[in-house]
Automatic annotation (TrEMBL):
<keyword id="KW-0520">NAD</keyword>
<feature type="active site">
    <location>
        <position position="252"/>
    </location>
</feature>
<protein>
    <submittedName>
        <fullName>Betaine-aldehyde dehydrogenase</fullName>
    </submittedName>
</protein>
<dbReference type="InterPro" id="IPR029510">
    <property type="entry name" value="Ald_DH_CS_GLU"/>
</dbReference>
<dbReference type="InterPro" id="IPR016160">
    <property type="entry name" value="Ald_DH_CS_CYS"/>
</dbReference>
<dbReference type="GO" id="GO:0016620">
    <property type="term" value="F:oxidoreductase activity, acting on the aldehyde or oxo group of donors, NAD or NADP as acceptor"/>
</dbReference>
<keyword id="KW-0560">Oxidoreductase</keyword>
<comment type="pathway">
    <text>Amine and polyamine biosynthesis; betaine biosynthesis via choline pathway; betaine from betaine aldehyde: step 1/1.</text>
</comment>
<feature type="domain" description="Aldehyde dehydrogenase">
    <location>
        <begin position="15"/>
        <end position="476"/>
    </location>
</feature>
<dbReference type="InterPro" id="IPR016162">
    <property type="entry name" value="Ald_DH_N"/>
</dbReference>
<dbReference type="InterPro" id="IPR015590">
    <property type="entry name" value="Aldehyde_DH_dom"/>
</dbReference>
<dbReference type="InterPro" id="IPR016163">
    <property type="entry name" value="Ald_DH_C"/>
</dbReference>
<comment type="similarity">
    <text>Belongs to the aldehyde dehydrogenase family.</text>
</comment>
<keyword id="KW-0558">Oxidation</keyword>
<dbReference type="InterPro" id="IPR016161">
    <property type="entry name" value="Ald_DH/histidinol_DH"/>
</dbReference>
<dbReference type="Pfam" id="PF00171">
    <property type="entry name" value="Aldedh"/>
</dbReference>
Length: 490
């Protein structure tokens, strides 16, 4: 019954009894139907989470006890690695090696936050030196309460773990709303959590559409904190909903991240990381380095090599050996990316790709695409496309590269490649972005902070920063009664 909602420790149908279709993006076939959650289901889920937080054992366990459950969840995910990765391929379209990487990462995220939960037993209290004699004070960290987590479709199970694992580690209880495009692997977390000994209500999963299941979660008075990953317009709506009763919010939104390549970079290295930066996961990556800036002497030779290598990328079904580019997630995304490409053709020069690969018209495939010679104010240069579409421009000076790189309303990620490490460090510091790579693009580590500047979001996930998202800080200050005091009763 895993295609149902998971509420209060049990899989159950939506109150309306309705379901929605889940489509395999490689062939447009419906392969599953999943419960279509609505406001009533969200209400039940939030109430279960509220009870589990206000009265249940989870927030009252020691960090070490919570760690044991989270480690068992990590172990269970690792034990089902192949099955979960194949489900991810069917649901999302990504190539199997990338899905395996995601699932390994997901298990790792649970283990990482298990360790941080255990450490909270010693680190959740911090003494505060006070200037005034007679008082002692300490800061204690406590779980923020019921967390509402709303996640996207590009890394379905991994994005669930980025929110669920730190929230549970902190002692919060959670209502998770996976994307309607890819609900399958997140739903598995319910059974995994239950088998690992997570108490009922500590994790609830409501599948369904944004306006029907997402929005009621953002507006529910029983939710203390919202954590969202997705588009800027939806993030803005979520922040507005949170404003009404002052819920805490963390947002990880879009990007149009630059990769600056200096001419002293070996061409093979540049080609490898440029392609990894935009074609990995079909370019459906918020941090994708979709704007490449190349120093002039390298520009022409690099463009020639890039066009050649992009044309060689094996496109196909995610389970086929050697495939490095699968279909996009669904029809809506396919149309969005193809129409962005059409717009790009009016704004710049199409260097390679630009269409649906021959013989693969049955799925939501798009060729690896490169545009050059567009103006700095071109729509394709400025807006997030979320597909395998790269824009390349040249630059003459370091200052010009930094100016163009930072000229964006986004600030999620940025990358710089150069043999001169002093220069690379200087440029890295000059970027207005939350995630900066030197001589690579995209590798993501559970230990390091993840999130954006400007319209790319608020707050940081992963590492200790991710745990802090789900912790409140309380000061406890005590007076030493043996000391003199008296204001009214002198
Ligand atoms: P996309 O359009 O590519 O799916 P979104 O940012 O809209 O990107 O979706 C990310 C997540 O946000 C999904 O789980 C989606 O269901 C959810 N969502 C969409 N609209 C809303 C909304 N108004 N309130 C809450 N969640 C929403």
């Amino acid at each position: 019954m895993k295609n149902q909602l998971f509420i209060d420790g049990e899989y159950c149908a939506a109150a309306s009894g309705q379901v929605f279709d889940v489509v395999d993006p490689s062939n447009r076939q419906v392969f599953a139907q999943v419960a279509r959650g609505g406001p009533d289901d969200v209400d039940r889920a939030v109430k279960a989470a509220r009870r589990a937080f206000d009265e249940g054992p989870w927030p009252r366990l020691s960090g070490a006890e919570r760690a044991a459950v989270l480690h068992r969840m990590g172990d269970a995910i690792a034990a089902r690695r192949d099955e979960l990765a194949r489900l991810e391929v069917q649901d999302n379209g990504k190539p199997l090696p990338e899905a395996l990487w995601d699932i390994d990462d997901t298990a790792g995220v649970f283990h990482f936050y298990a360790d941080l939960a255990a450490r909270l037993d010693n680190s959740a209290e911090q003494g505060i030196p006070l200037a005034m004699d007679g008082f002692t004070s300490k800061a204690v960290k406590e779980p923020v309460g019921v967390a509402g987590a709303i996640i996207p479709w590009n890394f379905p199970m991994l994005m669930a773990s980025w929110k669920v694992a730190p929230a549970l580690a902190a002692g919060c209880t959670v209502v998770l709303k996976p994307s309607e495009a890819t609900p399958m692997t997140a739903l598995e977390l319910g059974g995994i959590a239950k088998a690992a000994g997570l108490p009922p209500g500590a994790l609830n999963i409501v599948t369904g559409f944004g306006p029907e299941a997402g929005q009621p979660l953002t507006e529910h008075p029983g939710v203390d904190k919202l954590a969202f990953t997705g588009s800027v317009p939806t993030g803005s709506r979520i922040m507005a909903a949170a404003a009404r009763d002052i819920k805490a919010v963390s947002l990880e939104l879009g990007g149009k991240s630059p990769l600056v390549v200096f001419a002293d970079t070996p061409i093979d290295e540049a080609v490898e990381w440029i392609m990894f930066g935009i074609y990995w996961n079909q370019g459906e990556v918020c941090s994708a380095t979709s704007r490449v800036l190349v120093e002039e002497p390298l520009y022409e030779p690099l463009m020639a090599r890039l066009a050649e290598e992009a044309g060689r990328i094996r496109i196909g079904h995610g389970l086929e050996d050697g495939v490095l580019l699968g279909p996009l997630v669904n029809e809506a995304q396919h149309e969005k990316v193809l129409s962005a490409i059409e717009r790009g053709k009016t704004e710049g020069r199409l260097v390679t790709g630009g269409g649906v690969p021959k013989g693969l018209e049955g799925g939501f495939y798009v060729e690896p695409t490169i545009f050059a010679d567009m103006a700095e104010d071109a729509w394709i240069w400025r807006e997030e496309i979320f597909g395998p579409v790269l824009c390349v421009k040249s630059f003459r000076t370091e200052d010009e590269a930094i100016r163009m790189a930072n000229d964006s309303r986004f600030g999620l990620a940025a990358a710089v490649m150069s043999a001169d490490l002093d220069r690379a460090e200087r440029v890295a510091r000059a970027f207005r972005a939350g995630i900066v790579w030197i001589n690579c693009s995209q590798p993501t580590f559970t230990e390091a902070p993840w999130g954006g500047y400007k319209q790319s979001g608020i707050g940081r996930e992963l590492g200790e920063w991710g745990l802090n998202n789900y912790l409140e800080t309380k000061q406890i200050t005590a007076f030493d009664r043996s000391k003199p005091w008296g204001w009214y009763l002198k």
